[in-house]
Write a structure and sequence with these properties.
The protein is an alpha+beta fold. It has helices at 4-42, 51-84, 87-93, 98-140, 142-145, 255-260, 264-290, 303-325, 332-351; strands at 152-154, 160-168, 173-181, 189-202, 207-220, 227-241. The chain has two domains: 4-139 and 248-358, no CATH class; 146-241, no CATH class. The chain has a six-stranded antiparallel beta sheet.
Length: 359
């Protein structure tokens, strides 16, 4: 109760800085993802109407990784400003030392640990599962991807070139269809045009077809007069095999499914989620230690060393994840977190003069 007002002031400074950093990092990550999804939409791999939806689905997964980093920089920059403006010097003179500082930030640290755990163990896997399901469904539904009028789209492998003049989203029906097919075992090209068409999947063989109605088919070699022409009421063009189930990656599996699995990749993902949540404690201790600067140095004086330390820790954690995934060292990530905590505790203890060699 003695330092309640000061604790609120320090916590608010760190929290606002953390939110600002998180927003910047999230916008940069989403911008990179947005460019990739736009490229997929331009190639006909992803419907344009789904770009914003899949972009939103990326937010929980990105936040699960970016939140600990944003909290690290929030403490570093927030406390750095207090040191640079000599406010922390005045607080130290009033008896508000490192121990009181850690106690003030402890509720915020606990909150960030809980939020990071909720993102990693629950929200991020759910949205990632929905993202993979949406992309798999979009990959199978060929016609719904070809909704840009006046654009020629090539299927995967370039076997078909398809043009759709218009598409009715409610009826899932295309209008003004042109399909050009080139097969390796046929001497010539197969061109089909029709007024309307829709996609149909044979449930027995899981083969996908585009069913064309009221059209014409041309077969022959371009530039030569020997070609065949026929009219039809209905004509089916096979466009590939449909997958009944999409592959769920480990990062999209629930925590319960991972805990029941005995594979190294599942254990690696489970340890990664746990390690990211516990890394909030490690990064918080390190940030408190690195935030201390002299009044005239400026609040960004320790930014470069702090970035290097953070990058080193994250890369070691990623390297440990690879060891667990390959079955080399099953407890590698936990060891990295424990060592990080030990280093942080020793450094903090020296800061508050608990150790004799600090005198």
């Amino acid at each position: 109760m003695r330092y309640l007002i000061i604790s609120r002031y320090v916590t608010l400074e760190v929290m606002l800085t953390m939110l600002a950093v998180l927003l910047v990092l999230l916008l940069i990550s989403l911008a990179n993802a947005f460019v990739g999804y736009l490229g997929d939409a331009a190639q006909g791999v992803l419907p344009l109407r789904l770009v914003l939806y899949v972009l939103v689905l990326n937010i929980p997964y990105l936040c699960s990784f970016l939140l600990p980093l944003a909290f690290f920089f929030g403490i570093l920059l927030g406390l750095g400003r207090l040191y640079a403006d000599s406010e922390m010097t005045a607080l130290l003179a009033a008896g508000f030392g490192p121990t009181q500082l850690l106690r003030s930030l402890l509720p915020l640290i606990t909150l960030v640990v809980v939020l990071t755990g909720a993102l990693n163990f629950y929200w991020a896997p759910q949205t990632m599962h929905e993202l993979i399901r949406t992309l798999a469904k979009a990959e199978q539904d060929l016609l719904s991807r070809l909704v840009l009028p006046g654009r020629f789209q090539a299927t995967e492998g370039g076997q078909y070139v398809i043009y759709v003049q218009a598409f009715d989203q409610e009826k899932k029906q295309a209008h003004g269809i042109f399909i050009a097919q080139q097969k390796e075992n046929l001497e010539g090209a197969n061109v089909v045009t029709s007024q309307t068409g829709y996609q149909w999947t044979d449930e027995t063989t899981n083969t996908r077809y585009i069913i064309l109605e009221e059209g014409e088919r041309y077969f022959g070699t371009p530039g030569q007069a020997n070609y065949q022409q026929m009219s039809f009421d209905r004509y089916g063009v096979q466009i590939g095999q449909s997958k009944e189930q999409f592959k769920v990656r480990e990062r999209a599996q629930s925590t319960w499914e991972l805990s029941q699995s005995k594979t190294p990749k599942a254990k690696s993902e489970l340890q990664w989620r746990t390690s990211l949540s516990l890394s909030v404690l490690v990064l918080a201790l390190w940030a408190i230690l690195l935030a201390q600067i002299k009044p005239r140095q400026g609040k960004y004086a320790k930014a470069l060393p702090a970035i290097l330390v953070m990058i080193l820790y994250i890369n070691v954690l990623i390297l440990a994840k690879g060891w667990v995934s390959d079955g080399v060292f099953m407890g590698a990530m936990y060891l990295v977190v424990v060592l990080g905590l030990i280093v942080g505790v020793i450094g903090f203890a020296r800061r508050v003069h608990y150790w004799p060699w600090n005198n």
